[in-house]
């Protein structure tokens, strides 16, 4: 016991320091962040050295040694990806003050002309209406909005022109989104009033009124070719919804946008993410418009810009909100496309191993993404299989004792968890990150193989948005492998209990594999819960509000209330006294809206649910209000006990 206590002492000291000191340190501070990243890197290097020198089984021509070497190579490659990420996270930047210092009206010649491009293919009318209204409501003096319709829909042309925007289409759909934008840009470049910048919005992303004003400000620097902003979502993603933890855990992309991309910007390696971005026309012309060599044209765009001496910068402000994938199928399709596009970039002259002009730091940080999708996914799968093979066949890939494991693995693991939780302000959750990574591992490995070794002419797959889901759906195709892995793990444990310990196996190896197996079962259990899709009953998402409003009946009687939530189709009010339900039509007044005709759908003690009956003008006013930016409220912190309670409630039904 004394030996175990000695081995655990460094980890306990680290945990104590974290509890006492980190709450008082700014995670965006230059020196605390750098020193934290250096410490975790040192612990990682210490762990890697121990794994290579002290944990391999005796060399021989047997399967056990071969398996240990394979697992070690994959694990060390994953550790390399971890070091690259820690290097990126050692710095961060915030450009909001720079924006304030360079208003667009102060540019030579005044505010430059911006063409807002909205590529679209098969989205529904209500989705496109939101985006168009938001794009047309910019607090910016010099811009045009263009719908780029690859679906060639007459109704969309009519709606676009009725709202005051412009409509473009083409005769074919080659190269997907990038091809659509390039076809439109070539037409716009032939006009005498060519734009200075292009803003890109996905069809489901609604910009706030200050989107152009804030992003154009960063173009004061002629070396900036692209300004990227974060993606926020006004609906829960599949992980939040299926775990019934919408208000508890952050959406799956928050760590990337809130932490990683801001850190990459500090190193000069930020990259475009496809929507909610602003691009300099002259820089875009210099690289031959949007790249078509990869289905992730956004990442390749920034890599090409870096090779020409330009930069992509990141403005970490909530300037748009869109739809997250609504089901696991759409979620995995999207992640598979991202992975495929990254691997396609590896095969281009701008990839991390090419002889092209890509700067070395951009190569390293692109390599981080490549390793994340490949060995990061592979090590997760191998990490599930190794304990199973141990229990059933006696395969041992790590030969060590328990004090040594605690001494070398625990400080790195705890340090990494603490550092990532600190820089993410509590939204990065280790077990959740493992479960989410496992969900995409199979798709990532498949897409990696196709991207690296398959045909270069892979089709662009659009992520479906706005679909109806009104019942629980068990994704058996996804959940079955996880259930089989749980059964194999627990079956192996039971088999060992019945048959006794493996001959010649030290108890410490048994203890290590026991902990490893139980951890795997926890991760697999969370992954299984995520694969049981929960229904989405609402046709439109509701946004939390707290505003004074008034209901007015047909006789002119005013009923004071507080609006507690609002959507495009209705609102919920808190009222001391409610108007009679028989009232055929009332007016909702206040909250910065024109008088909106409403009907009472339901009422209860102190609560009234309204349905809007708006005109076209009033509907547009509702959209402008909801997507003004005031209602973007992502989860910014997840206390561990809140997560545990949420998972327990979900598990117990």
Percent range for β-strand residues: 5-15%
Query: Whole-number radius of gyration?
Result: 27 Å
> Which regions contain 5 or more consecutive residues with pLDDT less than 50?
none
The major beta sheet can be summarized as: 7 strands, mixed
Calculate the mean pLDDT score and round it.
91
Instruction: Please state the overall shape, judged from the principal axes of the Cα atoms.
Output: globular
SS-based class = alpha/beta
When the domains are counted, the total is: 3
Spatial order of strands in the largest sheet: 3-2-1-4-8-6-9
Task: State the separation between the terminal residues, measured CA to CA.
Answer: 41 Å
Helix content: 40-55%
Beta strands, count: 18
The total count of helices amounts to: 21
Task: Give me the secondary-structure topology.
Layout: H1 2-21, H2 30-54, H3 63-89, H4 96-101, E1 114-120, H5 125-136, E2 143-149, H6 154-163, E3 166-169, H7 176-189, E4 197-200, E5 206-207, H8 211-217, E6 224-228, E7 232-233, H9 238-242, H10 254-267, E8 277-280, H11 281-286, H12 297-307, E9 311-314, E10 320-322, H13 328-346, H14 360-373, H15 375-393, H16 402-423, H17 430-453, E11 473-474, H18 476-499, H19 507-530, E12 532-533, E13 543-552, E14 558-566, E15 570-574, E16 586-590, E17 593-604, E18 607-612, H20 616-626, H21 640-651
Parallel strand pairs: 1-2, 1-4, 2-3, 6-9, 7-10
Antiparallel strand pairs: 4-8, 5-10, 6-8, 11-12, 13-14, 13-16, 14-15, 15-18, 16-17, 17-18
